[in-house]
């Protein structure tokens, strides 16, 4: 989807949102991408997938194909596409649902001490959610006819553009 269409939609629906500073931050992210705060060294890094990737090969294959088809990933690459190309292992984890639920993981905490996650300060990667009571207060103070919507985006980070530097 073209980002100008996305931006216009967000702009329209958040026109009367009480916290315009937040709206401006969201629009800035749409325009330029989110700054992840990565401050690690630029280097070339390759890896092998986790052992768990071999336990559910069809699930891994389908998950990767879905990521590629939706434009959430690029590859595979015969040679690294960038000078400082960092690769993180893929794996799977299961959750005890009936039937068993399998989830794809990209192990961004590998290698220990030199990972992508190690290079993003906690202050940049911490999310603080407002309490439900805060939402109730906002709805009540906004008056009759106010609506509240909640979204639960699957793999929400796939919907957020990242700034080109990160």
Keywords:
2 strands; 2 domains; 166 residues; two-stranded antiparallel ribbon; mainly alpha
Question: How would you sum up this structure, described in words?
Answer:
The protein has 166 residues and is mainly α. The protein has two domains: 85 residues, no CATH class; 80 residues, no CATH class. 31% of the residues lie in helices and 7% in strands. It has a two-stranded antiparallel sheet with strand order 1-2. The chain is globular, with a radius of gyration of 20 Å.
**Which consecutive residue ranges, at least 5 long each, have pLDDT under 50?**
none
Q: How many angstroms separate the termini?
A: 21 Å
Anisotropy-based shape: globular
Helix content: 25-40%
Coarse structural class: mainly alpha
Largest sheet, described in full? 2 strands, antiparallel
Beta percentage is: 5-15%
- Write down the Rg: 20 Å
Q: Helix and strand string, N-terminal first?
A: HHHEEHH
User: What is the strand arrangement across the widest sheet?
Assistant: 1-2
Instruction: Provide a count of the helices.
Output: 5
- Total separate domains: 2
Task: Give a summary of the structure in a few sentences.
The chain has 166 residues and is mostly helical. Helix content is 31%, strand content 7%. It has helices at residues 3-13, 20-32, 57-69, 122-125, 132-142, and strands at 90-95, 101-106.
């Amino acid at each position: 989807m073209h980002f100008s269409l996305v931006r216009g939609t967000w702009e329209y629906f958040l026109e009367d949102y009480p916290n315009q500073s937040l709206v401006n931050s969201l629009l800035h992210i749409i325009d330029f991408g989110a700054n992840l705060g990565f401050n690690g060294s630029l280097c070339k890094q390759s890896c092998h997938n986790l052992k768990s990737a071999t336990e559910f090969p069809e699930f891994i294959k389908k998950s990767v194909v879905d990521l590629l088809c939706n434009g959430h990933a690029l590859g595979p690459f015969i040679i690294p596409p960038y000078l400082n190309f960092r690769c993180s292992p893929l794996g799977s984890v299961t959750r005890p649902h009936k039937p068993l639920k399998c989830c794809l993981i990209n192990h961004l905490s590998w290698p220990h001490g030199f990972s992508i996650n190690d290079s993003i300060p906690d202050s940049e990667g911490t999310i603080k959610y407002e309490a439900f009571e805060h939402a109730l207060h906002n709805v009540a103070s906004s008056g009759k006819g106010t609506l509240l919507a909640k979204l639960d985006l699957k793999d929400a980070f796939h919907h957020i553009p990242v700034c080109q530097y990160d």
